[in-house]
């Protein structure tokens, strides 16, 4: 793999906006999540603004996102640098940081489920951090199986450094066009390279457009994602939940379910019954996905 990273576009524009969170939000807690989650851990650092790279939803070009917050629950200053629509870039940044939904109802969840309420109190303002884009989530989905998170993170970091764009002080993942130009990716077998090409083509064809997937809904989006070579049931669900900004759906995720069962003083085997699990998670609406994420992070 040669060092052929593309240069930032000369017509990239920078826009600064402010997002006022509804309900609790801590960028410091988000930073902690970034540092602990392999797909985005390369963006983690201990202090200063949070700087993320992404492939933009609208023009599929590199996008740099910088977020800063002076105090928990206060306004979040978001600066985006890219070639696409500033409004779309801001919406993408909000989705990545889970600032696109109100968290004001979490207090009601704490009242309905005091055990979960104690976890919320211990992790104030922690919201899910999402994949920067559906495209990057799908790329991770075909890179990571059978090689482990650490090796997958190394591969994606190297791809960004050698074939991506450095923009706004951050290295972005290669664009779909750049990915299609790669015949070999060190650390990956030929089949995974072919699958990465399939992800790139699906992205260019609009199949991984986040608005399209949202319009399809949970089952339609999953079915559509599974049509991409190398993406099966597990990652079809994972991309839907962790890239599209889903808030109120309990994942088919044994670790989160076991954590909830233990929190409720139950045997995890009890919650393998769909009826029992549905009753246990009902009080967590409309934040079931957020609570699942929180329990995973609290028990990591």
TrEMBL record:
Compositionally biased tracts (Polar residues): 1-19
Region of interest (Disordered), residue spans: 1-26
Annotated keywords: Glycosidase, Hydrolase
InterPro entries recorded: DNA_glycosylase
GO molecular function: alkylbase DNA N-glycosylase activity
Enzyme Commission no: 3.2.2.21
Keyword check for Hydrolase: yes
Signal as UniProt keyword: no
GO process terms (BP): DNA repair
Protein name listed in UniProt: DNA-3-methyladenine glycosylase II
Species per Swiss-Prot/TrEMBL record: Actinomycetospora corticicola
